[in-house]
Design a protein that fits this description.
mainly beta, 2 domains, 10-stranded antiparallel sheet, 8-stranded mixed sheet, 18 strands, 12% helix, 43% strand, elongated, signal, PAN-3 domain-containing protein
């Protein structure tokens, strides 16, 4: 039985994608695309540069597989898996040690690649793609791909924190949210400006946006506690927001029932979250 693993890193990019080459062959060839005239190295490189390709199989002819689920069994042929930041085991490692789950984002598309052993002579592989819609942007929070975005209340109105919570349950959204890190904070602040252009401001008021955090409680379990994104300590007797021109991070206001900070600011909308759409 051939169980040795050969590691090959081709053309490293900023996302540290790699191709791990092993002896094996796919259990089902019906979903593959055949490429004539390619060498083994060219076959692997073609898969590497194709965002939708997760496995290359070579046995005199090159076969590439796009996202989906499949099994690979040990053989004298060669397959190459696409992985990220995987440290290859030694050549004499036992078969079951080859197992990995990779998640990354490239060009606003989320990728998840799971490889796990099945018995002693085969692997199960699942390669999935995630995307966002409705002007939202994809981010990876721990092991979950989420879509976040700023939504202004309809009809050029202002709203209090409770109305913001309810608004984030409409039109396919899941929950009110907040910035999990500085990258998300920068996106949400920029999204406020985008919404200002699309939905218009409320009179001469500057636009503030409610985020998750109501009297010390949180509804969205995926964003953390704003440790890296707050201007100052956040009390438990207030509601949280972003968008103030004197505090570009997370701030608070003691009256959760108000919709304006007179005479300059209006809570024009809310940061919302939903899970990313799985394409396959």
């Amino acid at each position: 039985m051939l169980t040795s693993i050969v590691f090959l890193s081709l053309f490293p990019l900023t996302n540290s994608l790699q191709m791990v080459v092993v002896y094996g062959e796919p259990s089902d060839m019906s979903e593959s695309q055949e490429y004539q005239g390619l060498s083994l190295d060219d076959c692997i490189a073609t898969c590497y540069w194709d965002n939708n390709c997760f496995l290359a199989y070579y046995s005199s002819v090159c076969h590439l597989f796009e996202y989906g689920n499949m099994s690979v069994k040990s053989s004298k042929s060669v397959v190459a898996f696409k992985t990220r930041n995987y440290e290859c085991p030694s050549a004499n490692s036992s078969f079951p040690e080859f197992s990995t789950t990779d998640r990354w984002i490239e060009n606003d598309v989320g990728y998840e690649n799971e490889i796990s052993p099945v018995g002693e002579i085969s692997w199960k592989i699942s390669f999935s793609i995630f995307q966002c819609s409705n002007n939202s942007k994809i981010f990876l929070r721990d092991t979950i791909f989420v879509c976040i975005g700023v939504r202004f209340f309809p009809n050029i109105t202002c709203g209090n924190h409770n109305s913001a919570i309810e608004f984030c349950k409409t039109d396919g959204w899941s929950s009110i949210t907040g910035p999990n890190n500085l990258e998300e904070l920068a996106f949400l602040n920029g999204d406020i400006e985008r919404e200002n252009l699309v939905s218009k401001k409320y009179g001469n008021y500057l636009s503030l946006v409610w985020i998750d955090g109501n009297l010390g409680g949180f509804l969205d379990e995926t964003h953390g506690d704003y440790t890296s994104t707050k201007c100052y300590d956040l009390p438990s007797n207030a509601c949280l927001y972003i968008g103030h021109n004197q505090c570009t991070k997370v701030a608070y206001f003691s009256d959760c029932n108000t919709d304006k900070m007179s005479p300059y600011y209006c809570w024009r909308g809310v940061a919302c979250r939903k899970e990313a759409d799985r394409i396959n």
